[in-house]
Amino acid sequence: MIVVSKCLTGECCRYDGKSKPDPEILALVERGGAIPVCPEQLGGLPTPRTPAELQGDGSAVLEGRARVITADGRDVTKEYVCGAYKALRIANEAGVKKAILKSKSPSCGSGEIYDGSFSRRLTAGDGVTAALFKRAGIEVETR
Ligand code: SF4
To answer: What is the pTM for the complete model shown?
Structure first.
């Protein structure tokens, strides 16, 4: 059993109200081999929602050294951290050791994320949920 980003299953849970379906991930969920989670929805954010980027990386956010800010200047750090811990609880309850998450997302991205300038520039780092999963020993792959 693995955890997957819900938007990869075709669920319209992205900030823009759309999805990023991946046929392999959808097939895996339909076979009962994967649990879809959307950390931003789990954190209480609405869909659609104003896009947000990390002012730092996911590890810094978890340690209280960086914040998550929307394009219109709102601090949504609490929602991002809350959603990450709820996603981790779901993963732990199912004994999950691997996750396939959506690339570049401020929650789900792994290895590279947008740099906080809202100019589509990427920088090295993990999203908040990906960082938390890695700390918990869950292998993270992205699509
Ligand atoms: S990338 Fe992650 S947080 Fe963003 S919509 Fe997909 S599942 Fe939700």
So the answer is: 0.98
